[in-house]
Design a protein that fits this description.
Layout (H helix, E strand, L loop, with lengths): L13 E3 L13 E4 L4 E3 L18 E5 L5 E3 L2 H4 L8 E4 L6 E5 H17 L4 H9 L2 E3 L6 E3 L2 H7 L4 E6 L4 E4 L1 H7 L3 H12 L2
Parallel strand pairs: 1-2
Antiparallel strand pairs: 2-3, 4-10, 5-9, 6-7, 6-8, 7-11, 10-11
């Protein structure tokens, strides 16, 4: 195997396959070899990798202020670029979904493909995107939720922000609790497929 470039430690921090795939991730700096060497950040993406999408995990409750702003949790901002832009949209009622710009580009690609394959979807896409809004966190990490989206999501007072891998869902906490009822069947169905 090819050694890492100068300044990249070998040994426990060197992981990878001949094809360049990531084998393990420990939270400590890791290095992947393959096409080239690169340092892997906390969420498993290559640092300075232009195509990487942040990973969002966990849930946090914050207060919606009187101006309609809510803070993004620090763990959700840790790998964000400076002036990170997001798209806030309601796809599944009653929740709102917040997509970072890179993940939103993938959604846009799928929407374009849908419109090419099924021109009859135009009205649905138009209605879906009519209430979408681009938001950028302020210097304190808060985003502004427009009144129409607050109403659509039933948001007032407390907001539950839930990391869903490539996006953040915003819930009224009582709606989230109600959505989880009867989840044992879904857990039994899907957990064994993912966690072996």
């Amino acid at each position: 195997p090819m050694p890492p470039p100068a300044g990249f430690p070998e040994g426990d921090g060197a992981v990878g396959t001949a094809g360049g795939g990531l084998l393990t991730f420990s939270g400590a700096p890791a290095y992947v070899r393959g096409v080239g060497w690169g340092e892997v950040g906390r969420n498993g993406k290559f640092l300075h990798d232009e195509g990487a999408v942040a990973t969002y995990l966990g849930s946090y409750t914050y207060t919606l202020d009187d101006k309609g702003r809510v803070s993004l949790p620090a763990p959700f901002r840790r790998d964000a670029e400076e002036d990170q832009r997001y798209v806030l949209i309601q796809v599944h009622s009653p929740t709102l979904s917040l997509y970072p710009e890179r993940a939103w580009r993938e959604v846009e690609d799928r929407l374009r493909n849908l419109l090419r394959a099924d021109p009859g979807a135009r009205d649905w896409v138009t209605r879906l995107l009519a209430n979408a809004v681009e938001v950028t966190p302020d210097s304190q990490g808060r985003i502004l939720i427009p009144a129409r989206l607050q109403e659509a999501g039933g948001l007032s007072g407390q907001v539950l922000l839930v990391g869903v891998i490539d996006r953040i869902d915003l819930w009224n906490p009582s709606d989230f609790d109600g959505a989880g009822e009867g989840g044992e069947e879904a857990h039994a169905r899907y957990a064994s497929q993912i966690f072996r």
